[in-house]
User: Fold these one by one.
Assistant:
Number 1:
Amino acid sequence: QLQVVEYGGGLVQPGGSLRLSCVASGFTVDSYTMGWFRKAPGNEREGVSYISKSGVITHYRDSVEGRFTISRDVAKNTVYLQMSSLRTEDTAVYYCAVAHPSYSLGSLQTSSYNYWGQGTQVTVSS
């Protein structure tokens, strides 16, 4: 059974940083493209970043480019999202997800992902 669990959310002031972790079980994180998504109240779930199966390709939505960094540690079977220069508009529940095998090069579309974590709340507020 493929499963992912997110950790690391919390309350941070604008301009601050957080690192989210996505711990995988039932598979290895270098077997599939892995993605981070978020959902703010009143908004649809949106793709934030992904790292391809090979680990070579990473991609970010425009609004987080240069501020967020996705990475993985295969030995720890964990994917990370380092978030810096956080803004109030980054407030959301953040989800880790496992892509369908067809998307080995990556995707930011929610429909490309089969397995989802329960999410972790990130609140950016002064």
Note: The chain is about 0% helix and 50% strand.
Number 2:
Amino acid sequence: QVQLVESGGGSVQAGGSLTLSCAASGITASGINFSNTGVGWYRQAPGQQRDLVAQFTTPSATNYVDSVKGRFTISRDNAKNTVSLQMSSLKPEDTAIYYCYVDYWDTRTYQTRRTWGQGSQVTVSS
């Protein structure tokens, strides 16, 4: 069973930086090649829907929501089955719970599945 564990959330002042990390387990045991998975980050502010922040659209190409371009960087380490989100020049409007995800082909059910991390609170004060 694939599981994601996030770390690195916290509170910072505006202009500060944080890095979120997301480690996947059960990948190898499930016969999944992590380098072939879709991974990314969403965030959900209070009273808002969960929105995409950044993602790998292919094993190497990335996509960012306009509001974080130039400030956030998504990266992945396929050897360690991890995906990270480096956030700099943080703004109060970046305050949200951040969720990582992994999309993979489930060889037992022959369908694409998405697993979510548990969520990490990021609070940016002005």
Note: The chain has a mean pLDDT of 95.
